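Quick one, probably user error.
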């Protein structure tokens, strides 16, 4: 039986901006144990407002209202997971809330990363200490503020005899390189769009928020000239550390390229965007003769995307993190539960070699009941 000091709730809403995953986790054993999970969806109108905010289309009043509304939903998600577990708030050490990123600009003249979801509301409604605002301390130490999950991946997925890559396919795709040779360094960075452009184009053309199982993409063909044009974006050739978001890879970015390729059909564009995700992942994988890839995030449920990824990575095997004992849907939420534990125990949560920070840092602020 886990003690109270081992129990944490992780709250995560990623760059797909579709809802909040809540995971109540025990860290009593050698692997995280999921005790309860819950997903709170945003709904169409709120999601559209969040996406608009991420594209710099929100005034201060709108940002303030979104911060409050998202905070209420994050609190709701945490309460739902707690209720499902049968535990009480006093048994949980802390909540780790990622918040909802609406702007991430680590390379601007004045670097920043903005997450909405007021942690004051979360702690007020749950009565549980809440750790939030994880990214800005790393930014203050001259890091990218992202990705943060590689530290968690290193702690629970690394294997001394095997080169592994953890591939998270959310709105943005990122990889964690976990070399089996202890003399090598764990690395991680955002490769570029994961589901972001696929979802945006599907919504724009069909009114549906995503392409179920990649069926629409499977009806199209790769438009090679368009793909080459998309791949010319400078982000893809940047060396790590690097991170990005929907403030860059969005519908407006895509349409600047589509104007040069008027012959491309809707389905062909969808298939080409899928190939863009696959290509930018595979071209940035580390060199290894025995690499094993384990995927997580919403992209693992896109059959066409996973089929094409396996084709492109062959003979390197592509599995999902379930095979390592952690369900692919819940890896990110569990990671922020673990990051909350790191903070509460006054341990660094970042990896300087990943983010580019000047050193390990205790991340986030703690909000007390």
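Nope, works fine. Designed sequence:
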């Amino acid at each position: 039986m886990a003690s109270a000091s081992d129990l944490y709730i992780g709250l995560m809403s990623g760059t797909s901006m579709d809802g909040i995953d809540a995971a109540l986790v025990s860290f009593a054993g050698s692997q995280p144990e999921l005790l309860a999970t819950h997903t709170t969806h945003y709904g169409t109108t709120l999601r559209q407002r969040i996406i608009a905010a991420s594209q710099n289309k929100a005034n201060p009043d709108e940002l303030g209202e979104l911060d409050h509304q998202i905070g209420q939903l994050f609190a709701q998600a945490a309460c739902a997971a707690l209720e499902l577990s049968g535990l009480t708030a006093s048994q949980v050490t802390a909540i780790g809330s990622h918040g909802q990123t609406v702007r991430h600009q680590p390379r601007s003249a004045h670097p920043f990363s903005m997450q909405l979801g007021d942690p004051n509301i979360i702690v007020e409604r749950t009565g549980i200490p809440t750790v939030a605002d994880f990214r800005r301390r790393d930014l203050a130490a001259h890091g990218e503020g992202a990705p943060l999950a590689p530290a968690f991946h290193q702690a629970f997925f690394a294997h001394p005899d095997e080169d592994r890559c953890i591939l998270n396919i959310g709105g943005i795709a990122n990889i964690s390189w976990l070399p089996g040779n202890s003399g090598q360094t764990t690395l991680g960075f955002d490769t570029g769009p994961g589901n972001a452009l696929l979802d945006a184009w599907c919504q724009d053309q069909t009114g549906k928020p995503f392409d179920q199982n990649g069926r629409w993409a499977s009806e199209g063909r790769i438009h090679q000239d368009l793909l080459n044009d998309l791949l010319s974006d400078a982000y893809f050739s940047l060396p790590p550390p690097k991170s990005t978001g929907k403030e860059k890879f969005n519908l407006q970015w895509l349409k600047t390229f589509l104007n040069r390729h008027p012959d491309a059909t809707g389905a062909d564009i969808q298939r080409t965007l899928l190939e863009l995700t696959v290509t930018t992942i595979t071209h940035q994988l580390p060199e290894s003769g025995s690499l094993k890839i384990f995927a997580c995030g919403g992209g693992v449920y896109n059959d066409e995307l996973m089929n094409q990824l396996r084709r492109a990575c062959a003979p390197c095997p592509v599995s999902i993190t379930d095979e390592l004992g952690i369900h692919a849907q819940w890896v990110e939420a569990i990671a922020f539960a673990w990051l909350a534990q790191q903070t509460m125990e006054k341990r660094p949560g970042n990896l300087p070699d990943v983010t580019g920070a000047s050193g390990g840092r205790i991340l986030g602020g703690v909000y007390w009941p």
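The mean pLDDT is 96.
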